[in-house]
Amino acid sequence: MDVAHCYLDGNADAVEFCPHDPFHHVLAASTYTLQEGDQPSRSGSISLFDFNADVGSLDLFHRVDTAGIFDIKWSPVGANNIGTLLAQADADGYLRVHSLECSSDGSNSTGIFLKELSDARVSSSMCLCLDWNPSATSISVGLSDGSVSIISFLESQLNIQQEWKGHEFELWATSFDIHHPQLVYTGSDDCKFSCWDLRDGPSKLAFQNAKIHKMGICCIAKSPSDPHSLLTGSYDEYLRVWDVRSISKPINETSICLGGGVWRIKHHPFVPGLVLAACMHNGFAVLKINGDKPEVIETYSKHGSLAYGADWQRGELFPEGKKMNTAIATCSFYDRLLRVWMPESEIAT
Questions:
Q1: Which of 70, 155, 343, 349 is the most buried (most CB within 10 A)?
Q2: What is the distance between the alpha carbons of residues 78 and 87, in angstroms, rounded to a whole number?
């Protein structure tokens, strides 16, 4: 069920609902636009929207112009009481952290805006992806030259802690282990899925699988409810279920083909095993994963270009029988389209 949509100012590549109370209505969307010519440039923006599911409204209230952005992530809930933060990884090689602030001067309709707290030049290469550790004291960054950077975030300051050459090609996926934050997972265009132990510096390779993914790895998502379960998505169109106790192969050898490169995976914030996937050339999919068996329960194909950004709205659940009133935001790249919709499937809470 479609609720609202709008067009962004550039090519849309990431959407993130704010997980922090009382800002669950705030939706951030980022863009990356390559200006070709004799002196090519990469520009971008972060737009903040006020989403109201009751009336079906999606209102832009704040925008920040930046370098071209590849990834954005809100800080984790319950992390050291540091406030509501949004990190960006951009094409200029910078990691930037913004704070969501409230003003009383009436400068916009909501009184909410982003204020840049800190930035760090990570590399002369492009920053392609990022992830916060659970305590929001570190951020992992994947780079276009295959390197990994671990950057501390203490007292609003960013400082590079560790950096190493983890992969041969672009590193599109990095993820802290939620349950064991000394571990960081990475995935790259070299088809290697790796895990690093941050207790050794430069980080020690805990394991690496270079056989299963037939094309580059785009995303990695540790299950918040199952400490042993982890998902990867690849250009080879497969979403794979891994048991991190036996990482040499997926616990389900065949996993599931989603008909398009699996660019982003998002676990539902409350419902175990419920997953949202952005499938590049094949729209978006909602899956239920029972143990090692992923099953598509719904697809969404109302975007006309590369399906890149996807996220669930946080907040209270309003069960209607077995149906759950949870909004989903999705965006597509070349048509610059942002949509918010409700899944129509019956999803058990």
A1: 70
A2: 16
pLDDT digits (tens, 9 = 90+) for 211-221: 999 999 999 99
Distance CA(89)–CA(92), nearest Å, equals: 9
Alpha helices in 126-283 (DSSP H): none
Question: Is the pLDDT reported for residue 101 higher than 90?
Answer: yes
Max Cα–Cα distance, the chain, nearest Å: 59
Our CA dihedral for 70, 73, 18, 325, rounded to 10 degrees, sits at: 80
* Residues in Cβ contact with 144 at an 8 Å cutoff, skipping those fewer than 6 apart: 125, 126, 127, 128, 170, 171
The whole-angstrom separation of Cα 347 and Cα 349 is 6
292: exposed, middle or buried (Cβ count in 10 Å: 0-12, 13-18, 19+): middle
Structure tokens of 123? Answer: 């590399």
Residues 6+ apart with CB under 8 A from 36: none
Find tokens 């430069």 and name the residue: 202
Residue 79's pLDDT is 79
Q: Would you state the pLDDT for residue 242?
A: 92
Long-range contacts of 111-118 (CB under 8 A, 24+ apart): 112/23, 112/26, 112/48, 112/61, 112/62, 113/48, 113/62, 114/46, 114/48, 114/62, 114/64, 114/86, 116/64, 117/85, 117/156, 118/153, 118/156, 118/157, 118/158
Where in the chain are the domains? 2-341
Chain centroid to CA 5: how far? 20
Measured between alpha carbons, how far is 110 from 17 in angstroms, rounded to an integer?
16
- CA distance linking residue 92 with residue 127, whole number of Å: 7
Contact between 196 and 176 under an 8 Å Cβ cutoff? The reply is no
User: Which tokens belong to 48?
Assistant: 């903040």
